[in-house]
Amino acid sequence: MIGLDGVAKAFGPNRVLQGVDLDIDSGTSMVIIGGSGTGKSVLLKCILGLVTPDAGRIMLDGQDVSRADRDAFLARFGMLFQGAALFDSLPVWQNVAFRLLQGRNRLSKSDARDRAIAKLRRVGLTPDVADRFPAELSGGMQKRVGLARAIAAEPEIIFFDEPTTGLDPIMAGVINDLIREIVTEMGATAMTITHDMSSVRAIADRVAMLHNGRIQWTGPVGAMDDSGDPYLTQFIHGRADGPIEAVR
Amino acid sequence: MTLLSPLGALGGAVLAALGAVGRATLFALDALGHILRPPFYGREFALALLQIGWLSLPVVGLTAVFTGGALALQIYAGGARFNAEAVVPQIVAIGMVRELGPVLVGLMIAARVTSSIAAEIATMKVTEQIDALVTLSTHPMKYLVAPRVLAALLVVPGLVAVGDVIGIAGGYAVATLSLGFTPAVYLRNTVDFLEMWDVLSSLIKGCAFGGIAALMGCYFGMMSGRGAQGVGRATKGSVEAAAVLILAANFLLTGVFFSL
Ligand SMILES: Nc1ncnc2c1ncn2[C@@H]1O[C@H](COP(=O)(O)OP(=O)(O)OP(=O)(O)O)[C@@H](O)[C@H]1O
Ligand SMILES: [Mg+2]
């Protein structure tokens, strides 16, 4: 469904992506892992067109996304940003219902609010946060509001940038289950970035590891433990010694 | 080589400045295009009207009343040097309406509105809220820029009109309370002297300055660099650019109006 072919992106001298090839099938859950600063967030932004790649092609359903109709393209996506990126001028429920309140098929205010509150429940937030402003919430709560916003319009393809960082273990479990449910029950395609190996095992159908601007390893989650790839093995066991240099 | 390097630096600076002017111009044209094409965001527009118009009234009124008062004192003292103290009402009126009203309101809007627009949009950029808008199928130019620019174009002429009136009132108060002018005569002289075109040119200037102020705030905000420093630079740059452009536009417009 999503196909990346030689995607490259540099910021000045900093060559972040150096030719990423990756395929994500419809209705599957792909998890991207990799060291901090390897360009995982940049990769998601390239697919969404928020960052323009220097080279390479990104295909969605066999069509080059740079030539697609932007509105129709974006209408299929939901995105949770790493920093939540909530609109701080709007109360929580209007953040969650933002897309439902725009466009031709917009819902009435009260319907949109009901939908927002239902989505907030799914991420473990009570209705009383609906009328608060994002600045009044804790980091983990903001993250979950961002998650509710990403799934509010029930998009086909959802990107989650570190959905469980900043959450307690129980809440992280709830969110992992939610992402899994969205893929299996709603048939959505998910691409998740995470550093949490238990999340990887809970969410992923397939895993891809980004290292040095390229996909170092990709395969089904079950094959991760005996991949024989020294980089992946070091990463999943969190060892300081191995081919990936840990600067001290 | 070393002899030429200052020239090279100068050339580089000129090219950079021209590039910035070009980008800002394209931005302005883009913004105007988005004002004219749907979708329109009524709530954002209403909030911008409130922010730029209504909430600016106190600062505009205070600036104008003190300036009008000082103007009356100066003209009285200056006029006294050649026995022309009687022209105070006329010169206060023309000075406020044609020149000081629009310029002072423009500069106050640059200080109050341009800075807040730039800081707000730059913060949204830095915290990825602009990216989030895009992923929610909302065009930032339409949602953030168009409502603010349109509101400024419409409401700043109104502020200028208010500033003109309050400035004249300030002059009137000083002239009647301490310079010995008769209220009725002062008012009649003011009203008889001002022409339709004086008022019209004041409002046209207000419209132009409002547009400049809002556009600069939006432009610098959208072009902001990363981090808190990026927000700071965007805010500072937007106010500088808006103030200088308003004064330059004032000069140009005044020249154009006199040549008509
Ligand atoms: N807009 C930008 N301008 C300049 N450099 C950028 C920009 N966005 C990202 N970078 C750089 O690209 C690199 C990758 O950033 P990215 O945010 O994708 O990392 P990441 O893999 O998501 O890391 P983390 O796991 O810590 O979130 C970093 O070195 C960062 O400094
Ligand atoms: Mg990241």
Tell me the strand order in the biggest sheet of chain A.
Answer: 6-7-8-3-9-10
Which structural class should the secondary elements of chain A be placed in?
A: alpha/beta
Alpha-carbon Rg of chain A, integer: 18 Å
**Considering DSSP H and I runs of 4 or more, what fraction of the residues of chain A is helical?**
25-40%
Largest sheet, strands/sense/barrel of chain B: none
How far apart are the termini of chain A?
41 Å
Question: What molecules are bound to this protein?
Answer: adenosine-5'-triphosphate, magnesium ion
Explain this structure.
The complex is a heterodimer of chains A (248) and B (260). Helix content of chain A is 33%, strand content 25%. Chain A has 248 residues and is α/β, with parallel strands linked by helices. In chain A, α4 crosses α5. By secondary structure, chain B is an all-alpha fold. Chain B has one domain (39-259). Chain B is 86% helix and 0% strand. Chain B contains nine helices and no strands. The longest helix of chain B is centred in the middle third of the chain and has 39 residues, at 88-126. The radius of gyration of chain B is 21 Å and the shape is globular. In chain B, 44% of the residues are buried. The chains are: A alpha/beta (248), B mainly alpha (260). The interface between A and B is medium-sized, with 22 and 13 residues. The complex binds adenosine-5'-triphosphate and magnesium ion. Adenosine-5'-triphosphate binds at residues 11, 14, 16, 36-42, 82 of chain A.
What's the quick description here?
With 248 residues, chain A is of the alpha/beta class. In chain A, 33% of the residues lie in helices and 25% in strands. Chain B is mainly α.
